[in-house]
Amino acid sequence: KAMEMLNAFIAEYENKELQAKTIEGTSQCNILFTDYMRNWLERKKNKIEITTWDGYYDVVNKALHFLL
């Protein structure tokens, strides 16, 4: 399930990267994946249940730790 969530995060990242929208004044083409995921988590924080967010947080941090 964690890998499915990670793959969904990556797909969302790649889709948004192609759109080349701006996040906090930085083109997504120039933003690190780790920074994007941290930003994504913050944007989701107040839009979903805290238990869901905690699960996302754990998955993202484990994935980022694996990548680093």
Write out key terms for the chains shown:
single chain, 68 residues, mainly alpha, two-stranded antiparallel sheet, 3 helices, 2 strands, 6% strand
Describe this structure in words.
The chain is built from three helices and two strands, in the order H-E-E-H-H. It has helices at residues 2-19, 33-44, 50-67, and strands at 22-23, 26-27. The two termini are 21 Å apart. Helix 2 packs antiparallel against helix 3 (50-67). A two-stranded antiparallel sheet has the order 1-2. A hairpin with a 2-residue loop joins strand 1 and strand 2. The chain has 68 residues and is mostly helical.
Q: Could you write a compact summary of the structure shown?
A:
The protein is mainly alpha-helical.
